[in-house]
Design goal:
The chain is an all-alpha fold and 211 residues long. The chain has 10 helices and no strands. Keywords: 4Fe-4S, DNA damage, DNA repair, DNA-binding, Glycosidase, Hydrolase, Iron, Iron-sulfur, Lyase, Metal-binding.
Length: 211
């Protein structure tokens, strides 16, 4: 894909959605961190249902550590992998209290040092909470990057690096959310809605005419 197509794709995505953001509900960087940890292999809708109740009772590192792992599980048991996530969240809260004065760190290496936080989660926090031009490559973005020809790669990291390099700078800050939402609602895995896609003629998906 050439740079002119790539620029036009992001221009159209911006025109459709000038101020994209996450569909996770949160009111501060700590709540976002917890929500993103919970979102692994779970839907945003499911996470929002759980955090709506959880955050009313505990939405600080201190209050969650007071809950403890056992009680926390009761709030998030509707979410996949809740046992592991509960342990990671409580341990992360201890780290934040002891190492970062209960604040969410703004550096990638610090974020990735937290239990349950990998590169993808760190990228979401850096981008959504702190406005950094990072791209968290989830299944939606990995699919759309390869399918459209925006940035083909065999691994999420390869796709991330290519997208970061090839995306025009003025679009980079919002690229993550534009691509994620387009992949979630239009360029879907099993049945992409090519007929209603605003970037249809720019896309290099070979099967799009057959859909």
């Amino acid at each position: 894909m050439n740079k002119f197509k790539r620029k036009e794709i992001f221009s159209r995505l911006r025109e459709k959605n000038p101020n994209p953001t996450t569909e996770l509900n949160y009111s501060n960087s700590f709540e976002l961190l917890i929500a993103v940890i919970l979102s692994a292999q779970a839907t945003d809708i499911g996470v929002n249902k759980a955090t709506k109740v959880l955050f009313k009772d505990a939405n600080t590192p201190e209050s969650i550590t007071r809950l403890g792992t056992k009680k926390l599980k009761e709030y998030i048991k509707s979410i996949g992998l809740f046992n592991t996530k509960a342990r990671n969240i409580v341990n992360t809260c201890h780290y934040l209290i002891e190492q970062y004065d209960s604040k969410v760190p703004k550096k990638r290496e610090d974020l990735e040092g937290l239990p349950g936080v990998g590169r993808k989660t760190a990228n979401v926090i850096l981008n959504t909470a702190f406005g950094k031009p990072t791209i968290a490559v989830d299944t939606h973005i990995f699919r759309i990057a390869n399918r459209t020809g925006l940035a083909k790669g065999k691994t999420p990291l390869e796709v991330e690096k290519k997208l970061t390099k090839l995306t025009p700078k003025k679009y980079l800050k919002n690229a993550h959310h534009w691509l994620l939402l387009h992949g979630r609602y239009v360029c879907k895995a099993r049945k992409p809605d090519c007929l209603n896609c605003i970037i249809n003629e720019l896309c290099e998906y070979k099967k799009k005419l057959e859909v």
